[in-house]
Amino acid sequence: MVASPVLSKTPEDLHSAETQPVEEFHETPLQTSEVLSLEEFMLHPPERMEWVDGKLVEKTGMTLKHGIAQAKLAYYWRNYMNSSGQGGEVCTETLCRTGKQARRPDVAYFTTEVLEQVGEVTVFPQSFPLIAEVASPDDSAEDLFAKAREYLESGCQEIWLLFPEARLVLINAQQGWRLFNADEVVSTQAVLAGFTVAVNELLT
After folding, report:
1. Which residues contact residue 145 at a Cβ distance below 8 angstroms, ignoring those fewer than 6 apart?
2. In this model, does residue 104 exceed pLDDT 50?
3. Which of the 8 DSSP states describes residue 120?
4. Residue pLDDT, tens place only, 140-158
5. Distances (CA, A) of 161 to 124, 132, 147, 171
6. Which of 97, 108, 109, 196 could hold 128 in an S-S bridge, CB 3.0 to 4.6 Å?
7. For 109-135, what is the mean pLDDT?
8. How far apart are CA 41 and CA 50, in angstroms?
9. How far apart are the C-alpha atoms of 198 and 76, rounded to whole Å?
């Protein structure tokens, strides 16, 4: 911190300054000019933080509808994974490395075979095979689609975008986007074969 130059003050000025309330300043961890490398971030990744363009970005903006949709989808995927005998794991907001960034998808699924390939790791070294992101009021459509493209370019085989307010689901399985409306049944296209759920049931 650079010290400010000391200006001459009268006794009246000093007395006035002493009686004024002092405004406290708290610097947050996100306000830093230091650029953190991806490798440094992955050594000790902070909770609820993503690494985007050299900066720590906190995941915020989760509404009640967002949280319910996230929990429901994770529950449905896990139940179907077990009942169908396909195995694997379902996780929420678990850190993975894309080709450019370090992200925490809202919901993700990966098979037992993929887990055996990557081994025991702190951060998943690529995008999960099946990923879902739930749109919150803070998310722009442009940012969501850019993030989806990032996932698809780094190992993700199928990405779901859930829009609780509009009650829409968009799915891309490397063959363009498919739209599912509120009165339709959404299904997996490439990963966790055979899973289906009514959009109305998922996004109530």
Report:
1. 161
2. yes
3. S
4. 889 899 999 999 999 999 9
5. 21, 6, 10, 6
6. 108
7. 87
8. 9
9. 11
State how far the Cα of 59 lies from the Cα of 93, in Å rounded to an integer: 9
User: What's the predicted TM-score (pTM) here?
Assistant: 0.76
| Residues 173/180, Cβ–Cβ less than 8 Å | no
Q: What is the token pair recorded at 97?
A: 């490395």
**Helical H runs in the chain?**
11-19, 38-43, 64-83, 112-118, 141-152, 199-202
- Distance between CA atoms of 179 and 94, rounded to whole angstroms? 26
Where do the domains of the chain lie, and which CATH numbers do they carry? 64-202 (3.90.1570.10)
- Rounded Cα distance, 36 and 174, in Å: 32
Q: How far apart are CA 170 and CA 152, in angstroms?
A: 14
Residue 57 CA to its chain's centroid (Å) = 10
Both structure tokens of 202: 């998922």
3-class SS of residue 169: strand
